[in-house]
Each structure stands twice: as structure tokens, then as C-alpha cells.
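Hi support team,

I submitted a single chain yesterday and got back a structure, but I'm not sure I'm reading the C-alpha cell output correctly. Could someone confirm the output below corresponds to the sequence I sent? I've pasted both exactly as they appear in my results page.

Thanks,
R.
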Amino acid sequence: MIDPSVRIHETAIVEAGATIGAGSSVWHHSHVRDGAVVGEGCVLGKNVYIDTQATVGDRCKIQNNVSVYHGVTIEDDVFVGPAATFTNDRVPRAFNAEWKITPTIVHSGASIGANATVVCGHDVGEYAMVAAGATVTRDVAAHELIGGTPSRHLGWVCRCGGLVSRADERPDVLVCANCAAG
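Hi R., thanks for writing in. Yes, this is the structure output for that exact sequence:
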């Protein structure tokens, strides 16, 4: 059953057995599969696909043209930019009937930039930031900023997303100048 405060566009498909939390919005041509879980206060943009057994936490924003496949868990307060890609099979072959799902977790507060690809089996830490167009081929530490293809370390970010340091070593204090001043 879907909470009456959920907004579902007339072109969206929400299968029976999907769970969508109060105050969430599912926009044009999106598809939420049976067994998928979407938390409260989420926004699923145009043409978003949430696969069976995929989980999206509370207050997430998933922009247009994103597919969240079985095996992907997105925790609370995550931003996923337009056309970002998640995979769930390490050895994809069209003829492999015995393929195995490799899980991925995007932890609370993280941001995935537009057109970034998260290769399955690589978790993205709390408040981490993946730059637009990056290809994530390793775990991303909490508050780490990464970019490039394959992704590489670019620095450390505050909870707000502001740059804290470009050093390789994680700073003891992860607060940007704006947050420290205010």
C-alpha cells in the first residue's frame, strides 16, 4: 500500500509490492518494481528505475535517467545526479544464466555526480562526493572527494560538500571554512 501523501505521475509505474515512503514523489516514466523500497521524502526524477530488492533510504534525490539495480542499497540523504549508473554484475555475459549479484552500498549523505558510474562491489562512504563522469572502481572513504576514470583521490569534503583539504591523508577535522565561520 502506498501512503496517500506520495505523488506518482500518471506515466510512472509502481508495481504492487513496492514500498514508497510518505511524502515521496515519483516522476514521469519512472518504474518502481515489486519488492523495491523507497524511503520517506524522496524524489525520483524522470525515467528513474528502482529494481526489485533495491533499497533507497529517506530524503534521497535521484535525478533523471538513473537505474538502481537489485543489490544496490542507497542510505538516507543521498544525492544521485542525472544519468549516474550502478552495476550489479562483476562478470556480465548475456549467456550466463548463473550470474551473481555483487552488492554496493552508498552511505548516508553521499553524492554521486552526473554520468558517474559505480562499479558493483565498491561502497561509497558517508558524505563522500563522486565527481561528475567519474568511474568508481574502488571503495570511497567517508568524506572523500574522488573523480576521473578510473576514479582517484582528489581531497576531502565537509558534510556540506565544501572542500576541506586536497591532502592524501584524511584531516582530523572535516569542516570547511564556510561551516567553521558560520
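A quick pointer for reading it: Helices lie at 177-181. Let us know if anything else looks off.

Best,
Support desk
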